[in-house]
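Propose amino acids for all 486 sites.
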């Protein structure tokens, strides 16, 4: 198969896998939100701030280095496996020892056993880390998709069962534990590769330049993304944090499914053509158009229908989440396109520049969260939105220099989609204000979503931006593959 055919096939299965994962996640979230309260979600979010940071240190980036490196040998694979296992055990022990201090930081003694259980994720998950990287490297996304859907379904059903039985916060904690255990078992049953008794320091050093920079970047990005949760949890209460994290999750999860779908496919694909600047630039622009086409109407539309959406999906106990969700959706309108800079830096092997830029943006973001905290949870969300828009231009421009991609070219690439999205939102808002003020929330939400889909599709067919022709070509090539290259 040509690289383009491999990418299309991989993208198709990545879409299937991530759509399935998100559907399961969202259904489970709705069920758990109706059984449990914002306080339980807030407690888990407090623990996950620190466990999530430990997750950025997991493997020390060697898994991604296995994907990026153009040639690898058994000494690389086996050495990374044993190192990942050692790191996983170390992170588990470190987090267990930190549990009392984390509880003291939040003044929540209930966090100690929660952190203890969550710490086990790292040791268990290390057993499947290299297998996952090898599947990604081979663009074996059909395999990954089936595993992801199956393990997420198992974890979700397990959590719902415990919640119904009255397990409370442990239903949420158990969900990831069940998923990780299932993933390890399935990986070992279905992936033929087995680690050998090989520990090659030279092989690890060959991967280290890429991996350590990547770990630094991931750590910075993590604290940028988690500083809001940390501050809200420390200076407010679990209920406020529960509302914020659910709003953030509703905003973030659809974007993750789309950007992760493309990222998991595009990173190994762009790594293969990293020395061909023109093809790399074309691939990034195509992906940015597709991301904008899928995410912009979703997030902009959610701003308009936020009140009905929260009441219908989560219930009245989550009403206070509505203004937070609207603000975070403003972030989500542009943020997905900036995620593509990660592919550029990693595929070009310039994680050093990525780290330096991340250090600056992290400092600015955390300072803005501290200032925003003076106005509570909504103040933090507003600060997040302001900083995202202020940093939009330099984030694209600095990474774009590596592949001769200017911000003007980037903006022109998505401008027609922004215009169509704005018209769609105006139409939905007009219908809402003129005809749906006295309609029940469920009916109003259904009508608004239908109007949004119809108007967006109609405008797409009328204006026919470049993404329209991209989609037609994608459909043609999916039905009849041609021997062409990205």
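Proposal:
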């Amino acid at each position: 198969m040509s690289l383009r055919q491999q990418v299309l096939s991989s993208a198709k299965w990545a879409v299937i896998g991530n759509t399935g994962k998100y559907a399961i996640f969202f259904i489970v979230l709705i069920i758990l939100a109706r059984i449990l309260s914002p306080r339980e979600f807030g407690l888990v979010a407090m623990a996950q701030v620190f466990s999530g940071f430990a997750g950025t240190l997991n493997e020390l980036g060697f898994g991604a280095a296995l994907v990026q490196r153009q040639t690898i040998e058994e000494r690389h694979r086996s050495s990374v496996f044993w190192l990942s296992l050692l790191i996983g055990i170390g992170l588990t022990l470190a987090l267990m020892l930190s549990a009392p201090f984390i509880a003291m930081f939040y003044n929540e003694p209930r966090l100690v056993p929660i952190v203890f259980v969550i710490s086990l994720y790292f040791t268990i998950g290390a057993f499947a880390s290299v297998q996952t990287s090898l599947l990604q490297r081979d663009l074996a996304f059909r395999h990954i998709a089936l595993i992801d859907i199956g393990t997420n379904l198992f974890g979700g059903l397990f959590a719902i069962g415990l919640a119904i039985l009255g397990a409370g916060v442990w239903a949420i904690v158990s969900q990831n534990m069940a998923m990780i255990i299932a993933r390890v078992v399935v990986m070992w049953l279905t992936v033929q590769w087995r680690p050998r008794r090989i520990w090659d320091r030279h092989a690890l050093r060959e991967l280290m330049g890429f991996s350590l920079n990547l770990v630094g970047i991931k750590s910075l990005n993590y604290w940028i993304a988690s500083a809001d949760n940390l501050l809200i949890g420390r200076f407010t209460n679990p209920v406020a944090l529960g509302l914020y994290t659910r709003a953030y999750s509703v905003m973030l999860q659809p974007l993750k499914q789309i950007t992760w779908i493309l990222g998991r496919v595009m990173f190994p694909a762009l790594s293969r053509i990293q020395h061909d600047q023109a093809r790399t630039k074309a691939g990034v622009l195509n992906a940015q158009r597709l991301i904008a086409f899928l995410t912009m109407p979703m997030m902009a539309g959610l701003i308009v229908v936020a009140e009905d959406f929260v009441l219908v999906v989560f219930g009245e106990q989550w009403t206070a989440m509505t203004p937070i969700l609207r603000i975070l959706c403003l972030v989500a309108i542009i943020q997905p396109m900036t995620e593509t800079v990660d592919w550029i830096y990693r595929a070009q092997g310039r994680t050093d520049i990525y780290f330096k830029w991340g250090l600056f943006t992290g400092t600015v973001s955390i300072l803005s969260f501290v200032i925003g905290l003076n106005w509570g949870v909504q103040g933090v969300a507003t600060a997040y939105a302001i900083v995202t828009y202020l940093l939009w231009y330099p984030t694209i421009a600095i990474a774009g220099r590596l592949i001769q991609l200017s911000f003007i070219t980037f903006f022109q690439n998505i401008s027609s989609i922004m215009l169509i999205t704005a018209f769609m939102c105006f139409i939905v808002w007009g219908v809402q204000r003129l005809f749906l003020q006295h309609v029940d929330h469920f009916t109003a939400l259904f009508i608004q979503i239908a109007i949004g889909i119809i108007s967006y599709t109609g405008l797409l067919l009328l204006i026919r931006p470049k993404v329209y022709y991209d989609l037609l070509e994608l459909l043609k090539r999916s039905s009849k593959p041609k021997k062409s290259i990205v």
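The CA atoms of residues 124 and 365 lie 33 Å apart. The chain has 19 helices and no strands.
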